[in-house]
């Protein structure tokens, strides 16, 4: 057997460079890196040696680099991914939040985290976390609960099995998620005689499991007997690339479709069976249909609390079916499981249903909802007044075309966008499984890398922007253009509403005005973004916003548009009714004991609401 002598880090990079997709592209499209003493000598030297065949990207923060990588994988519908390497200690633990985000959202991410010395010769090294009772523990053990695959590379030959295992997980549609390789820093530099065959190019095929015939027959029978079925489409629809199949299925069998955050834009907004968002931030059309449904068919969804109104949205007698690639998700809420790939399962189900069609859904409710959205998002007459988030969304929608992708992650905007943004197919990118503040700017960069022909619109509140904005500088350096709409309401407006309206509390520590501070901050976001090289401007109304959105499309660098907004509720929070729309209950615990009548009244309301929850798990 012929061998080649390489360091473990060199072998890792060489191997990654020849792992291919069915389309002839690298599955791992390069590695994001910030070097420190735990990876600069090993991974740093190796990445330099193979820089002509495996690119390295420099970022500003390990967490946000990983967010960019995750957004790239999401844009590619999990057919390609990126890697992130860090030093030991804080460099590694900075990635833990991103690992959790990828884990919750079922998205592939390869994490190569620098670790302590395998020999333990210089222990304790700089930044080493020591466990007083367990000598095998390091800071990287934090990755264990948020990784789909975890391994510690403490011998150079470990990568012979660890790397294929990591990519097996990342390319498995059922178990997809982050793979973490904690790479001892001395082992990165150790040499080993690796088999040359290990470095032969390999094509990774993403399987499409077909459903069990007995499960298929049971679900077919349920659908045939249902009068008012409704589909809830989740992210699995997009990852299966089943968008066209879903649209054809809904049309053929006359079944309305509601969408989750991850599933939105699987159908374009003008598809006649698209009834809009489901649940807490749902449309009146979708939520009413779901309340009245006798059968609810989940497609690629986890039935998360926002989707189900914390289990209060569906009628107690409604039956549930869950089409999902993983049996764990397919069995949630006591659903009838139909385990399989979304695309082939919908095709098989449609074939068994033949020409069967459900009763005519309430198409008038759908039109009423769309008209209400247009009203809520209409251009305000008073351009001097601060607009609502809905009016901002309307302005951005009017200034963009079918190639636009709206993206966001946390705060008020995710719910507003889910309810009000009217996308073309594929025109929506939301990280809401983990709802991670700080994902937005880095995610927009990763999304643009993954979808270079789309017009990327990043909605971010002032709170999330302050949390993580430094990858603007990276996007400027790499000439990655996208548009940031920075809505400034001077605080955490979303949580302030939840605190005061949803939970019966008093305004406290969310809006700057309600904080224990000596001086109210006056942050110049335009100067801040411009200092990193972005084109930045502040607008005074939605007319100016529309003009700047259009102008941004001609630039090769990010554009940041700042607009002050009113901290006002929007339809879909479940806290009020506006413009003919309504959301649904969200279970956020309310204190049982309080001196304030408002708080006690809210707890009584809470007890009434949770009494309606379905208890099946």
UniProtKB/TrEMBL annotation:
InterPro entries: DHS-like_NAD/FAD-binding_dom, Myo_inos_IolD, THDP-binding, Thiamin_PyroP_enz_cen_dom, Thiamin_PyroP_enz_TPP-bd_dom, TPP-bd_CS, TPP_enz, TPP_enzyme_TPP-bd
GO molecular function term, any single one: 3D-(3,5/4)-trihydroxycyclohexane-1,2-dione hydrolase activity
Range of residues in the leader sequence: none
Entry EC number(s): 3.7.1.22
PROSITE patterns: TPP_ENZYMES
Keyword Ubl conjugation: no
Domain named Thiamine pyrophosphate enzyme central: residues: 217-349
Protein's UniProt keywords contain tRNA processing: no
CDD domains to which the protein is assigned, alphabetical: TPP_PYR_POX_like (cd07035)
Boundaries of every Thiamine pyrophosphate enzyme N-terminal TPP-binding domain copy: 56-127
Stretches assigned to the Thiamine pyrophosphate enzyme TPP-binding domain: 411-563
Record keywords, A-Z: Hydrolase, Thiamine pyrophosphate, Transferase
Pfam families referenced in this protein's UniProt entry, alphabetically: TPP_enzyme_C, TPP_enzyme_M, TPP_enzyme_N
PANTHER family: 3D-(3,5_4)-TRIHYDROXYCYCLOHEXANE-1,2-DIONE HYDROLASE, THIAMINE PYROPHOSPHATE ENZYMES
Family label: Belongs to the TPP enzyme family.
Protein name in UniProt: 3D-(3,5/4)-trihydroxycyclohexane-1,2-dione acylhydrolase (Decyclizing)
């Amino acid at each position: 057997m012929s061998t080649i002598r390489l360091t473990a880090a060199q072998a890792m990079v060489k191997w990654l460079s020849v792992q291919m997709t069915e389309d002839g592209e690298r599955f791992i499209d390069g590695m994001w890196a910030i070097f420190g003493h735990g990876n600069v000598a090993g991974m740093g030297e190796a990445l330099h040696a193979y820089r002509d065949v495996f690119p390295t990207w420099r970022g500003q923060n390990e967490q946000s680099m990983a967010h960019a990588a995750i957004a790239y994988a999401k844009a590619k519908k999990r057919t390609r991914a990126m890697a992130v390497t860090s030093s030991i200690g804080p460099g590694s633990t900075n990635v833990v939040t991103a690992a959790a985000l990828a884990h919750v959202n079922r998205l592939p991410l390869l994490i190569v985290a620098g670790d302590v010395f395998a020999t333990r010769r210089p222990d304790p090294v700089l930044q080493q976390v020591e466990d007083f009772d367990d000598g095998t523990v390091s800071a990287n053990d934090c990755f264990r609960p948020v990784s789909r695959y975890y391994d510690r590379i403490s011998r150079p030959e470990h990568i012979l099995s660890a790397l294929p295992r990591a990519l097996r997980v990342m390319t498995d549609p059922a178990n997809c998620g982050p793979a973490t390789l904690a790479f001892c820093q001395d082992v990165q530099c150790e040499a080993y005689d690796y088999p040359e065959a290990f470095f032969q190019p390999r094509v990774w095929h993403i399987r499409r499991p077909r459903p069990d015939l007995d499960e298929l027959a049971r679900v077919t029978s349920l659908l045939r007997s249902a009068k008012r079925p409704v589909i809830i489409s989740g992210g699995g629809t997009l990852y299966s690339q089943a968008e066209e199949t879903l649209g054809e299925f809904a049309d053929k069998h006359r079944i309305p479709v509601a969408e989750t955050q991850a599933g939105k834009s699987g159908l374009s907004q003008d598809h006649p069976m698209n009834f809009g968002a489901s649940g807490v931030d749902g449309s009146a059309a979708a939520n009413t249909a779901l309340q009245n449904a006798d059968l609810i068919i989940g497609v690629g969804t986890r039935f998360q609390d926002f989707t189900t109104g914390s289990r209060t949205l569906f009628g107690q007698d409604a039956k549930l079916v869950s089409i999902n690639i993983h049996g764990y998700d397919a069995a949630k809420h006591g659903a009838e499981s139909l385990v399989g790939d979304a695309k082939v399962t919908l095709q098989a189900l449609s074939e068994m249903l033949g020409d069967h069609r459900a009763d005519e859904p309430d198409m008038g409710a759908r039109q009423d909802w769309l008209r209400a959205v247009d009203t809520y998002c209409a251009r305000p007459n008073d351009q001097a007044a601060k607009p609502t988030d809905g009016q901002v969304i309307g302005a951005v929608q009017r200034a963009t075309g079918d190639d636009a992708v709206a993206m966001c992650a946390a705060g008020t905007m995710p719910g507003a966008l889910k309810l009000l943004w009217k996308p073309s197919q594929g025109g929506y990118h939301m990280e809401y499984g983990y709802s991670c503040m700080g994902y937005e700017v880095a995610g927009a960069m990763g999304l643009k890398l993954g979808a270079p022909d789309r017009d990327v619109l990043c909605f971010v509140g002032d709170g999330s922007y302050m949390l993580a904005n430094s990858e603007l500088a990276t996007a400027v350096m790499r000439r990655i253009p996208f548009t940031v709409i920075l809505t400034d309401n001077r605080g955490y407006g979303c949580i302030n509403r939840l605190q005061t309206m949803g939970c019966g509390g008093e305004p406290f520590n969310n809006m700057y005005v309600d904080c224990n501070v000596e001086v109210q901050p006056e942050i110049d976001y335009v100067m801040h973004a411009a200092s990193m090289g972005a084109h930045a401007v502040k607008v005074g109304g939605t007319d100016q916003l529309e003009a700047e959105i259009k102008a941004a499309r001609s630039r090769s660098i990010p554009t940041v548009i700042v607009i002050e907004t009113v901290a006002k509720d929007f339809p879909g929070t479940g806290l009020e009714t506006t413009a003919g729309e309504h959301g649904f209950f969200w279970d956020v615990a309310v204190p049982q004991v309080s001196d304030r009548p408002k708080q006690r009244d809210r707890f009584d309301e809470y007890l009434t609401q949770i009494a309606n929850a379905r208890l099946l798990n």
